[in-house]
């Protein structure tokens, strides 16, 4: 079973996490001179080891990998970034059994935090898709509280159309391997933001605990 839906806020998480991060990480290793806006945040990747293969045009980060770009963070045990002969970028983030790839995007202007987890994270620059695979869950927090949620065996985001597909399967976190989506009405979300602003002034929302 496949469930189709659209949600702009979740798109910001996926697009930022891999599409931009993968390219910049590769560019840093190869010395690419691709111009970027001064306002764009830099990408930093921390890991225990880094192996770069110039022939394969591939960077492999292993051990406690933390990729940060602006207010986006990705955590995994291994991150492989590469570019094909046509110039398309690809990325795969993996973890040890029992752990989850973790992606977080802070949106303090809206008092929001978007978090995604899965056993594997894959980015395909040619198709412009990002997948969270295996017990995939994406959650939106407003003012530190859980608000919207979608889960399944896989959640796929299409950059070109800003749309999603959530797939059922045996590796779903839900009973019977089903897809589950909980979306609050826009009016309720706006009310939650207004309440948070009134309570905290202009300060950003507190970070939800993992």
Automatic annotation (TrEMBL):
The keyword Nucleotide-binding does not apply. InterPro entries: LPS_export_LptA, LptA, OstA-like_N. Keywords: Periplasm, Signal, Transport. PANTHER family: LIPOPOLYSACCHARIDE EXPORT SYSTEM PROTEIN LPTA. It holds the Pfam family LptD_N. Residues 44-162 form the Organic solvent tolerance-like N-terminal domain. GO terms for molecular function: glycolipid transfer activity; lipopolysaccharide binding. The keyword Signal applies. This is Lipopolysaccharide export system protein LptA. Involved in the assembly of lipopolysaccharide (LPS). Required for the translocation of LPS from the inner membrane to the outer membrane. Residues 191-210 are annotated as: Disordered. It comes from the Bacteria.
């Amino acid at each position: 079973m496949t469930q189709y839906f659209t949600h702009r806020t979740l798109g910001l998480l996926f697009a930022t996490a891999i599409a931009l991060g993968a390219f910049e990480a590769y560019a840093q290793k190869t010395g690419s001179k691709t111009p970027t806006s001064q306002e764009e945040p830099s990408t930093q990747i921390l890991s225990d080891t880094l192996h770069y293969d110039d022939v394969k045009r591939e960077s492999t980060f292993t051990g406690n990998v933390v990729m940060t770009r602006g207010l986006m963070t990705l955590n995994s045990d291994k991150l492989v970034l590469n570019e094909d002969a046509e110039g398309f970028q690809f990325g795969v983030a993996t973890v040890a059994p029992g752990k989850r790839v973790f992606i977080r995007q802070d949106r303090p202007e809206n008092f929001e935090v978007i978090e995604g987890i899965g056993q594997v994270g894959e980015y395909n620059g040619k198709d412009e898709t990002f997948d969270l695979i295996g017990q995939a869950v994406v959650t939106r927090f407003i003012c530190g509280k859980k608000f919207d949620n979608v889960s399944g065996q896989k959640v796929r985001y299409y950059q070109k159309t800003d749309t999603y597909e959530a797939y059922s399967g045996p590796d779903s976190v839900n009973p019977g391997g089903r897809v589950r989506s909980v979306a609050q009405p826009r009016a309720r979300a706006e009310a939650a933001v207004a309440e948070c602003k009134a309570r905290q002034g202009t300060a950003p929302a507190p970070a939800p605990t993992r």
